[in-house]
Amino acid sequence: EVTLVQSGAEVKKPGESLKISCQASGYGFANYWIGWVRQTPGQGLEWMGIMYPAGSTTHYSPSFQGRVTMSVDKSIGAAYLQWSSLEASDTAMYYCARREYFNTPLDPWGQGTLVTVSS
Amino acid sequence: DIPMTQSPSSLSASVGDSVTITCRASQSVDRWLAWYQQRPGKAPKLLIYATSSLHTGVPSRFSGSRSGTDFTLTIRSLQPDDFATYYCQQANGFPYTFGPGTRLEIK
Fold first, then answer.
1. What is the pLDDT of residue A41?
2. Which of A69, A83, A115, B40 has minimal CB crowding within 10 Å?
3. How far is B24 from chain A (nearest CA, A)?
């Protein structure tokens, strides 16, 4: 079974750094894209970016370019999303999800990581 | 970016009813449109991809269609589990933008 398990909820202060993880299992991690989606409280879904582990290719949404960094560790089948300096507006639920190839949807999704940024 | 719109933003229906949700792309996305269902407190789940292909395990009560840049999700014979929020997403070009969502509530 293909599963994505995300790291637990985080509470951080503005200006702090953070790295959340997405652990994949049940498939060949390197050959499938991993995407990240943000959902702010009570709001809709925002596509942040996507990464291809085998070639380390990344595509960021312009809205998130420069604000977050996606990375992977192919040796353990994990994807990461990190911030160098959090802002209160980064408070949201973050989901990772797998994509097979171009034009295909995101499936499956991780359970989500809630990030709260508050002073 | 390819902005996506959805209508209605919310609707009320009863168990057994049929409903249709519309998603419009601001430019052509070909047939690369997916629908997701999100229940409160849960991650989204894929329902339909490539306009009308049903994801594995999704009941046949769900169907999708397209007319140009307009896409529809139809749910026939609503069941209690179907009351959730539905999002469309284009997968034609980066960034893969989502629609704002349609909240389906029980009447």
1. 86
2. B40
3. 16
